[in-house]
Amino acid sequence: MKVTFEFSDSPEVVAEVNAGESLMRVALDHGIPGIYGDCGGQCACATCHIYIDAAWIDRIGTPEPGSTEEALLEGAPADVESNSRLACQVVLTDDLNGLVVRVPEGQ
Amino acid sequence: MDGIAETPAPAIDPFDVGRPELYHKDAWRPVFEKLRADDPVYYCETGRSGPYWAITRYEDIVRVDSDPATFSSSHLLGGVTLEDKSNVTFMQMDPPQHTAKRKSVTPIVAPKSLAQMEVLIRDRAAKTLDALPRGEEFDWVDRVSIELTSMMLATLFGHPIEDRRTLVRWSDTITADLDDPDSPIRTEAQRGEVMREFYLSMLDIWKRRREEEPRFDIVSILAHDPDMRNAPVEEITGLFGLFLVGGNDTTRNSMSGGMWGFAQHPDEWRKLKADPKLLGNAVSEIIRYQTPVIYERRTALRDVEIAGKTIAKGDRVGMWYISGNRDESVFEDADSLKIDRPNARQHLSFGMGPHRCVGSRLAEMQLRVLWEEVLKRDLEIEVLEKPSYAFSNLVRSPTRLPVRIKA
């Protein structure tokens, strides 16, 4: 399956990935710039903040109100939008083939 | 002393890691090594400010720091230091209140602001380095670490740049340990006086900024924030205090710690010179190696088991970042500075979870720019003595580091 990472200042990267992995893990494995995953994917640092493309956000969903993910996103350096997620909390499933996400500027 | 029973001096618990002497003498490594191996969630009954738990392994620290519903930062329970304090900023709040309050300060450290600040920071780093003496001894802490971080603070606060050392004095007084023989103050009342001086000066700037067009400093950003504009005065001054200490002591200590680290590991400096692309990772590694903030405290909101120990509701829990950053199960050869360490970014120096350092990107940028400018000048810096460290259990702060730049 494929995931597309878009950037504000460089061409997009299309990554060939396997279902079952987290979007953060996949981004690190493909050396996607701007996604750091400092805490190793434990939903503890907000350095894997991404924007989910509008066409996909309903399928993926938004963070639970009051969740740690929501609190972390609010504290992240790039602006939080209604389609903001932490990539470590998005597990890739077969129905997400073709997913498009945008990497925030200067994370 | 006739007729008065003498109380015997309480025995010192060698595993009381809250003793400032341990960091003043730089003697903490073996103590934590033993705790991590034998008793990683240790109950110290004789802490200076009462009993507390010492969490010393990496994974347990991440667990505590990431679970604010169990481990509270609330000022109502004593806040984030072993000594109960009643300061109120978002640092001493739990979500969701924390979340909303923290948001009001994030614009100052947002990517756009950082890009704007980098030019200024680089210019100052360049001038500071160019003004250093060649071929004679000077103190790196005073001439570089304090100089650069105090200029940054003055910019953040819109404080007159020529009066930047006043900001340092305020910050050092706020964090001073009263048991420190060299402390600038002896009593909490004296501390209160100095803090008042700081707050009044800031409130003066605050009043002016409220009337002016928004500009680029933290006082202005807060003065124009719809929530903060009419916040109680203690909340505003509390935030100034948080930014003052957060922006002063931490980056300063990493600037000193990096110098010392490279002196201890000259091969790493050669490696960086040969491949400057390693600098981004090197900065994270310096921050891990130094661990400028030694610990943070939480208070248990319920009985909870960690590593086989039951922490009771209401207990003080110290997350010893300095120990987590030396955990060999995560960081191999953890006492060494290794600029290409693959997981350097996973250090705990910024904390983890919702309270993770809000200024982390600014700190990293200041450190990166400093070392870029040192590299650019190809300075050969020789460290002449071991650093001295502050008498503090909270900040690991080199107070003096004599160096000489080869002429």
Automatic annotation (TrEMBL), chain A:
One of its GO terms (molecular function) is metal ion binding. It comes from the Bacteria. GO terms for biological process: P450-containing electron transport chain. Residues 1-107 form the 2Fe-2S ferredoxin-type domain. Gene3D superfamilies: 3.10.20.30. Coiled coil: none annotated. The keyword Transferase does not apply. Its cofactor is [2Fe-2S] cluster. GO terms for cellular component: cytosol. The keyword Metal-binding applies. Keywords: 2Fe-2S, Iron, Iron-sulfur, Metal-binding. Belongs to the adrenodoxin/putidaredoxin family. This is 2Fe-2S ferredoxin-type domain-containing protein. It comes from Sphingobium baderi LL03.
From TrEMBL, chain B:
PROSITE patterns: CYTOCHROME_P450. The keyword Iron applies. Belongs to the cytochrome P450 family. This is Cytochrome P450. Keywords: Heme, Iron, Metal-binding, Monooxygenase, Oxidoreductase. Transmembrane segments: none annotated. GO terms for molecular function: heme binding; iron ion binding; monooxygenase activity; oxidoreductase activity, acting on paired donors, with incorporation or reduction of molecular oxygen. It comes from Sphingobium baderi LL03.
